[in-house]
Amino acid sequence: MSHDKRYPALLVISAALLLLFFAHSSPFSGNLSKHSITQEKVMVSHAGPSQERAPSAAPSGSALPVFPLNINKANQEELMLLPGIGEKTAQRIVEKRAELKGFRTVDDLTAVMWIGKVKLEKLRAYVTVGGPAGPSVAEPKEPSRN
């Protein structure tokens, strides 16, 4: 198979392009973008094709937001970290949240100007209207009697 010989070359070229792309935001060049994150630890998980996963949560004590992001509590800067959400759209989300006194479902985001069905589907894995993923506090259940 001829593609087996091209694969290592593709990896080398991809790595070189990534280095060139991120070279302009080097901490030594003094040209940091406003969204650059320093000392980020990236963890890669291998999900099978049938297992679609949402982004993993950041470690505790980290400055990185926890995904899925609660759109009822997130500030404008955190909302801007979502894919396809810029400054104006994040501001509109905050304004609509105040107007509606909180979003009841993720689908309520379609009430925000410039968020349609397509963008909502891209955001769905990254946002929630409830608390962070994990065990919720519930009332204690009575033991079952069999």
Question: Can you describe this structure in just a few lines?
Answer:
The chain has 146 residues and is mostly helical.
Features of the shown structure:
mainly alpha, DNA polymerase, domain 1, two-stranded parallel sheet, elongated
If you had to describe this structure to a student in words, what would you say it looks like?
The chain has helices at residues 3-23, 76-79, 87-100, 117-123, and strands spanning 69-70, 127-128. The chain has a domain at 69-128: Photosystem II 12 kDa extrinsic protein (DNA polymerase, domain 1, Orthogonal Bundle). With 146 residues, the protein is an all-alpha fold. The chain has a two-stranded parallel ribbon with strand order 1-2.
Compile the SSE list and pairings:
Blueprint: H1 3-23, E1 69-70, H2 76-79, H3 87-100, H4 117-123, E2 127-128
Parallel strand pairs: 1-2
Low-confidence spans:
32-42, 44-52, 57-62, 132-141
Number of beta-strand segments: 2
List the strand order in the largest sheet. 1-2
The shape is elongated
Helical stretch tally: 4
Relative strand content: under 5%
Rg, rounded, reads 20 Å
Distance between the termini: 63 Å
Overall pLDDT metric: 73
Major sheet attributes: 2 strands, parallel
Which second-level CATH architecture of one domain applies? Orthogonal Bundle
**Relative helix content:** 25-40%
CATH topology of one domain: DNA polymerase, domain 1
